[in-house]
Structure formats: structure tokens, C-alpha cells
What does this fold into?
Amino acid sequence: MFWVPLLLLAWAVAGTACLRLCLAAVRGAAAVDSDAGTGRDLTLYEAAFLSGGPGRVADLTLVAMARQRRLLLAHTGWATVVDPCGRDEMERSVIGAIGPQGQSPIAPVRAAAATADAVRGIAERLVSAGLAVPDGAGTTVAEAVRQVRLAVPAVAGLGTVALLMPVPSDMPRLLVALWFALPLVLVLGCLAITRFEVHPYSPWASPAGQRLLGALPRGAGDADDDRSYLTSVAVHGIRAVGEPELRAAFAHRVPPRGH
It folds into this structure.
């Protein structure tokens, strides 16, 4: 019965993925601090980091400088410095990444800015405040969910292979399919429970950080239009950029590793 080892492998894949998800959920629940972030407002850079990580912070900085006409982002994917005086550490990181020539493709600028000391400082402050997931703290819920999702086609594929193999005449193929359906139901059930119990899950924001992100204003008056626009970019990324030429400039970017 060659399908039995495949069944054992399917159970191993499903069980390992679900166990990792359970452990990640338990760690996340134990790390919840009900007082974290109380009375604290997120800066735009912090909102960007919690929403999309280091790459999102770099994107936000580039968009903000472009809107203030201190950086020109061409639709060809090149960045040109207009004002060489950065107003904060992130802007100085971007200007430094562009280099002394004052012009560079956006992709390497974004990659360098995303790994700058300024971004690491933002991450450390958010982790200290209990708003961000510590780097290297183990499998997060988001990572565990991805592993369970990968287990679904793996289990289904092993079941398909087993059904295509010869089986004893006294073993109905329907029974073989039912045996493989059990680990498949396990992983699908874990995904369903996770969807309702711990969604949304994030590789960057802790539950407290997600609460603060959810409290960010989604609309603003005329005096706050620019901040509202940048808040939308921080939370939703480049897809929130309204200018077609600016979106075209970012279409040439290459995401840095780990984003």
C-alpha cells in the first residue's frame, strides 16, 4: 500500500503547519499589552512601518518629498534632488542614497533608504512601545498562516498522487480519498478559525499597533488634505498615490529583500 506513506507525509505537513500557527497565535496573545500605545499618536513614518515595513517608509518619504517639490520623481523611474537639505533623518537618508550627483534610479534609492539607520530607529522605538513585532522573535501569525496556506495544495497534491497509484482491490479509492480529506479539513479549518479569531494579522504591527492603525483618520478637512493623502500612502502604499506620473515612477522600482 504505497499510499500510506503519502498519507503519513500529508499528516506531517498539515500537523506541522497547524502546530506552528497555534504556537504563533499563543505567543501573539501572550504579548498583547492592553496599555500599549495608550494616549500615543503615530507619526506618518511609524504608520508606514506598521503597515508595510521598511520599504513602505522609504516609499512614503519619496512621495512626501516629491509632493513638496523637493524631489523630482520622473515617470522613467529616476529620482532627482531639488532641495539637498533633508528635514529629518529619513529625508537625509534618501538624499544620501541618491548620491552626490543628485540623480539616481528609484530602485536602489528605495532599497538603501529602507535599510538606513533611520528606519532601524523607527523599528526599535515601535518595538519598545509594544506596537511592532520584534525582529527575529520567531514565527509570526502572518508567517504561520502562509505556511498553512501552502500546506493546502501540498496535502491535496499528495492525495491526488495517492489516488493515481495502484491500490489493493479490496481498498475503495473513495476510502483513500476520505483518509486524505482529514488532514485537508484540518488545515482548512485552521485557516477558517484564524480568519475569524486573529484577522487581520501583520508581519510588522502588534495587536496594539494594529489598533492604532485602525484609529487613524480616513478623511480630513481642507487644512489636512496633504496629511490625509500621506496617511493613505503610509497605510495603503503606492496604490494610494493619485498622480499617474508618480505611480509610473514607482512602477520601475524593485522591492528590497525582506519586504
